[in-house]
User: Fold this.
Amino acid sequence: MTLEKKPAHSDATRRTVRRVLPPPVTGQEFVLIGVIAALWILLGIFTPAFLTPGSIQPLLVSVAPIALIGVGMTFIIITAGIDVSVGGAIMLCAVVTAKALVTTGVPLVGAIALSVALGLVLGLVNGTLIAYGRVHAIIITFGTANVFQFLALRVFGSSTVNGIPSTLEVFGRGEAGRTLGVPNSFALTVLAVAIAWWYLRHTAGGRHLFAIGGNAQAARLAGIKVQPRIVATYALTGALVGVAACFFIASGTSTLDQTIGSGRELAVIAAVVIGGTSILGGRGSVIGTLLGAILVATVTSGVTQIGWPSQLANLFVGVFIIIAVGTDLLRERARRKS
Amino acid sequence: MRAKRAMTVGAIALAATITVAGCTTRNDDSAGGSGGGEDDQITVAFVPKLQGIPYFEAMNAGGQAAAEELGIEWLYQGPTTADAAAQADIVRSFIQQDVDALIVAPNDPDSMAPLLKEAADKGIKVATSDTDAPNSVREVFVNQASAQGIGEALTDSLMNAMGGSGKYAIVSCGETAANLNAWIAVQEEYTASEYPDAEIVDIVYAGEDQAAATSMATDLMNANPDLTGLVGECTSSAPGVAQAVKDANKIGSVFTVGLGTPMSMAPYLEDGSSSASILWNVENLGYLTAWTGQQLAEGNEIAATNDVNSDMPAVEFDEGSKVLLLGPPLEITKDNVGDFDY
Assistant:
C-alpha cells in the first residue's frame, strides 16, 4: 500500500509544480495569433499584394524596433514599472550614432556598440533613480524623457543630420537588409524574444521579476534582491533601445530629423499591453508583445493598402488597447473573487 | 483598489506623454529672449510651425540677414513638435514681450486667430508667413508661392517623369494643414484638366513623420501594382517616398516628386528615386518675412510692387487678399541641388 502511494504522491507534486508555471503560450496569445491570421487572410483577399514578400518584408522591418524595445518594456511592466522615456532615448541614441556615422565614418560594429553603450547608460540612469529614489517609475521616466530630448536637440543643433552613409543597411528595408528573404532586424528581434521567453519562464531570475511585480514587499521578504533586479530591467531596455535606434536609422532616409523616436514610447507600450502583459505587473509575456507589435503594424499597413482613411488605424489600435486592458482587469477581478 | 490605481497611473501616463510631446520649447542661441524693451529698434518676432528643421532654420537665416541689413531686431522661436498648443504658448510669450510685429506660420490657423486678435488689440502688428490664417486679423500673408503655382509645378514635374499618363498617389502630412490641402486641390483639378490619362488613386496622411511616410508609400505601391508615381507633399514625406521607391528597387518604374529641402533630397535626386523637388527660395522667404514685419511696424503702406532687395526687385502685393507673393516656385533637380546649403 505504502509502496503504491509513493509514486502517486510524487506525481501530484509534479503536477503542482507544473501548475505554477503558466502554459508556454497563453490564451491571449492564441487569440492574437488568430486575429493576425484572420487579418492577413482577409487582407490577402481584399488587396492585390498584401501577402507578397514586397509587403510583408517592410512590415516586419517596421515591427522589429518596436518589438525589440517591447522585450525590455515587458520586463519592466512585469515588475509593475513603466518607461515612458524610450522615445527620448531613441532620439538621443539615433542622433549621436547618425552624427558619428556622418562625421567619423565608424564601421557597423562600432556604430552599434556606440548606440548600445549610450542606451545602456540612459537605462542605468532610469533604473537607478527608480530603484533607489523610490519615486514612481512614470514620474522619473517622464523627467528623463525631457532631459534626453533636450540633449538630443542639442546634438541636432537646429538642423537635420544629412547624408547618412549606408553602413547600417544590413538592418534596412532594402535587399541588403535581408537574409534568405527574412529581414535581419526582424530575425534578431525574434532571437531576442526567444531568449527573453526562456529567461522569464525557466530561470529563477525571470520568475523573480514576476514575484516583484506581484508583490514587491513579499518578494523582498522572500530574499529577492529587488533593487538590482529593477535596475537591470531598465538597463536592458536601454541597451535594446540602442540596437533599435540603429534599426530606425537603417530603415529611415538618408536624413535624420528631430521627429525620430517621437511617440514611439506609446507604440511600444501599446504592443506590450495588446500582447497581454498586465499593466498592474506580475503577469506578461514577450511572445505576446511581439504579436502585439505585429498586429499594430498589420492594421496600420492594411488600412493604407485597402484604401481606407489613415486615421482609422488609430481607432483600431485604440480599440485593441481598450479590449486588452479591459480583459486583463476583468481577469484580475475574477481571480480575486475566486 | 488596485485596478483604480492602475487607471490613475494610466491617466497620468497619458497626460505626461502628451505633455512631453507637446510642451518642450528650446531657446535659440542666436535669438535670445530680450525682445521689445528698447524703443529705438523695431522688434519682429517670427514663430515657425516647428523649430529645428532645415526649412524653418533657412527662413531664420534669411530673417537674420534681413535684420542685419535693415537694422531691426529679429526674434525666432518655435515649438519642437508641430503642435498647435505649444506654438500658442510661444505666441503668448511674444505678446507679453510686446514686440512690434508678430508673424506666425500657424500649425492650426483656426486656433491661432483669437491669439492674433489679442496681439492686435495690444497694438502689435500681426501677419502670417508660410501658412495663412485667413479668418484672422492678420494684415499681410507672406506667401512663398501661390497654391496654383505649387500644385501645377508638382503635377508638371511628375507628369514629365511619368510621360504624361499613369496612376499616382499623394503622401501628405498633417491632415488639417491648410496649405497642403490647397495644393492637393490644385493638383487634383490640374491633373484632371491637363493630363486626362493620369489619375490620382489615393491620398494618405503620414503626419510629420518620415518613417510613417516611407511605410505608407510602400503600402501604396503594394496596393496599386500599376502605380507609377508618388508625391511627397511636405519636407518629411518627400525623402520618405523616394526612400520607399529605392528600397523596393523600383527606381525607373515608379517616379516621385515632392516638396523637399535640397540637402535632404540630394541623394535621391542623384540616384533617380526622386525626379524633382518643388520648393522656393526659403532664405528669401525669411528675408521677406522680416522686411514685412518692419514695414508693418513702421506703419508703411505696402505697395502693389515692392523692391525689397537686389534678389527680390519686384515682389507683388495683392491689396484685396492682403497677400504678398514671393514669386513662382523653384524646381530643384540633380543639376542645381548643389547650389543650396540647407
